[in-house]
Amino acid sequence: MDVPWLLVAHGSVTALVVVSFLCGQWPIFEGTFVQRINHFLTFGAYHHLLRLVHAACGNGARDLVLGVESYCCDRPNPILQIFYVAIIGVTYFIIVQTSFQYIPGYYVSGLHRYLSIVAVAIGALLFVLTSFSDPGTVTAENVSQYLSAYPYDGIIFEEKECSTCKITRPARAKHCRICDKCVARFDHHCGWMNNCIGEKNTRYFVAFLVWHFLICLYGAVILGFILAGELKERKVVYILTVYYGIDNSFSGLFPHVAQWLLAVHNTQILLAVFLAIIALLLGGFCAYHTHLCLTNTTTNETFKWQDYIMWRKKVNEEKAAANGEVRKSPPSKWKAFFSRSHTEADETIVKNNIYDRGMIRNMCEVFVPLSERQSFSRKKSD
């Protein structure tokens, strides 16, 4: 009887950690324990680790940890790429060893043995394309073409020279300190890919996210059907209700069915939960990057807009204070978070994205980058 409560507690703790890690910095969680958990996971734990290493082993060990951090976070390295391959390989190997024996089953066709291989192979191909393709490196040879392709908006992008590359930095480009190169339509540097995500490989990155979301969802659903098929073939519900007199209701059967599944198919349950959690995380990333593609915005530009809006707010507050205006008390965090728009000024700033040309054209620009179009090639030849 304690098993369901154990599962509920485990799921609640897992959900709290995931939400705190991903959303702990949202304004709605400001001053709450969710924000404190986020601070501990993203900064506090590592800071305490450094203090512990320094106290136990001295400066040399602390410098060693800082050197490892610098290698992992400030230089190109294949650590997360290897980690990704290990996760995919080990997970698929465990599924083959423990779950393929139930395929075909009552609800699952034998075709899924081969579909799973195809799904993993396509995911690996998208990983390779994203990791090893050119993200859109800006050089002295093609900088003039990128300058004409992306105009400056005069707000978050203004004409300036890259202090490292010594070339004029085109609008929407950024110099990546890890890769040490300017990247056109820079989105972010992805440690999992050991590569920047930019103009030429955003399509591969988005396809990678969507495909892996579908793979994890597919795996969790198939494992669920395997478990349901085992319950059906072994007549577990029938035995519980007829021979043991268990009430034929969800509340009556669930504890006993859960105990049987954990005793006989605990590996399948753990795999299904793991894949479902990963699918949930990837689903959020897919939704976010799909929104960026539809609005022709990048992660880098999103942060730039946030900084600009905060700066404008500060300027307006200083002007209001200088004019002696009395400001109304700000709305609660909850009302501000769920309201459609915060202020009229914010809406005006957000709508000033000159690169947003409609959803269809925005998506075309992602999947057929400007640098690969004939008009771009003609400008390059000129």
TrEMBL record:
Biological-process GO terms, alphabetical: positive regulation of response to oxidative stress; positive regulation of response to salt stress; protein targeting to membrane
Bilayer-spanning residue ranges: 6-28, 81-102, 114-132, 204-229, 236-257, 269-288
Palmitoyltransferase DHHC domain span: 158-306
Pfam families documented for this protein: DHHC
GO molecular function, one term: protein-cysteine S-palmitoyltransferase activity
InterPro entries the record matches: Palmitoyltrfase_DHHC, PFA4/ZDH16/20/ERF2-like
Enzyme category, top tier: transferase
Protein name, entry field: S-acyltransferase
